[in-house]
Amino acid sequence: IIMKVIVAENASELGKQAFKLLAEAVAGGAKTLGLATGSSPVELYQEIVASDLDFTDMTSINLDEYVGLAPDNVQSYHYFMQEHLFKFKPFKASYVPDGLAKDVQAECDRYNQLIKDNPIDLQVLGIGQNGHIAFNEPGTPFDSVTHEVDLTESTIQANSRFFDSIDEVPKSAICMGISNIMTAKEILLIAKGKNKAKAVKDMLEGPITEAVPASVLQKHPHVTVVLDQDAASLL
Ligand code: GLP
């Protein structure tokens, strides 16, 4: 294993460890944070909210958003970020892809430009059960940039737990590409739970392959992986 791995006792410890790394990056002058949604970063955001960190001079850029969901839709990633972080810790500017964009390609182009203009100092990431990062599913080229992604059946299934019914889960998303993610100076990947153990093992110990999108991180010079015991159980 070439990436740095931290195994935390439990979810709250994991949040504290991840927070420590993020706070160090901020103290070191980080100006732009790449942020993620999902259950993985929730404890990290709780620690941030409870801290005295001040982001009012900083920029945030989120990884992805569902196509078709308005920012005030409770299932949207805009809403998630608002509720978990932004309403407590506002940034100077916060960017999330516009799920309602009429011209999705133009929105992807705008997003790529945003990332160029605001190089990401620290990118927070989760990992999908199939090794996806953001919504970059297995098979996504490593040189991909922001694009519209058709969600796989397994991701729709996994994310349906947040929706009233599986039919309500959007079928596509706007998502940073793998090469956008790799431009971040530092990456902090968080994974919790037994259902992530296989993906974590493949990411850290398997071959670098587009079949496991997260395996690309073996090529990044500054990644820290923070796990709970369950996610680390196959290492
Ligand atoms: C979704 C998100 C990913 C996230 C993954 C895992 O598909 N687009 O960014 O990492 O699911 O989610 P969770 O952290 O809830 O397990």
TrEMBL record:
Known EC number: 3.5.99.6
Reaction(s) catalysed by this chain's protein: alpha-D-glucosamine 6-phosphate + H2O = beta-D-fructose 6-phosphate + NH4(+)
Enzyme class (EC, first level): hydrolase
GO process terms (BP): carbohydrate metabolic process; glucosamine catabolic process; N-acetylglucosamine catabolic process; N-acetylneuraminate catabolic process
Superkingdom of source: Bacteria
GO MF terms held by the record: glucosamine-6-phosphate deaminase activity; identical protein binding
A Pfam match: Glucosamine_iso
Active site positions, chain numbering: D64 (proton acceptor), N130 (for ring-opening step), H132 (proton acceptor), E137 (for ring-opening step)
Keywords on record: Carbohydrate metabolism, Hydrolase
GO CC list: cytoplasm
SUPFAM superfamilies per the UniProt record, alphabetical: NagB/RpiA/CoA transferase-like
Pathway field: Amino-sugar metabolism; N-acetylneuraminate degradation; D-fructose 6-phosphate from N-acetylneuraminate: step 5/5
Domain Glucosamine/galactosamine-6-phosphate isomerase, residue spans: 11-220
HAMAP family documented for this protein: GlcN6P_deamin (MF_01241)
UniProt cross-references to NCBIfam families, sorted A to Z: nagB (TIGR00502)
Membership in a protein family: Belongs to the glucosamine/galactosamine-6-phosphate isomerase family. NagB subfamily.
Function, as annotated: Catalyzes the reversible isomerization-deamination of glucosamine 6-phosphate (GlcN6P) to form fructose 6-phosphate (Fru6P) and ammonium ion.
PANTHER family according to UniProt: GLUCOSAMINE-6-PHOSPHATE ISOMERASE (PTHR11280)
Protein name, per record: Glucosamine-6-phosphate deaminase
Biological source species: Lactobacillus equicursoris DSM 19284 = JCM 14600 = CIP 110162
